[in-house]
Amino acid sequence: MAAVTGVESLEFAPIGVNGAIPTTGWVKLRDIEDGGITLNIPELATIDVRVEDVDGIRFVLKGDEEPAAISGASLDISISNANLLFNGVAGATGVEFSAKNRQIHNLAIRLTSKPFEGKKMVWVAPSAAISAGFKNNVARAGFLALSFTGKTTTPLDGTGSPVSPWGYKFVDVTLPEG
User: Fold this and answer.
1) N or C terminus: which one in the chain shows less Cβ crowding within 10 Å?
2) Which domain of life is it from (predicted)?
3) pLDDT tens sequence across 12-64
């Protein structure tokens, strides 16, 4: 069975060259809020074609494709995480963050699920447009969270041809002996 449950890790990296998945530079987002990651890959949009004097639909064509979207939150609101998700630059002292000139920026994303029945899923997007913010009540019974949403974009390879905006695979998990 190939099933997915839970998040083992969520990582971001600068986008790779020519639409490739980066091999280095991955930064792991820590302290992911429980239940805080949502991955949505919408079904293809369709265009229904009808003809005169015939009941029903004659053809179904592929319509515009909506991007896959991932959103989440981390309780680790460190300057380094804010700089990563907001595309910011820490102040001269390195202990402050300014959201001046906030922009959407692109990062590669890798989501690895927790193991289930000896397998875990690794979902990757070579380029996603990232928008960041903060959420949750500031209260003694909870924590402020650094939140983000990423929508996959379609990068181009070295010849200018589009590459897949996302993909996934299942990998075997080495179980401890005993």
Assistant:
1) C
2) Bacteria
3) 999 999 999 999 999 999 999 988 899 999 999 999 999 999 899 999 999 88
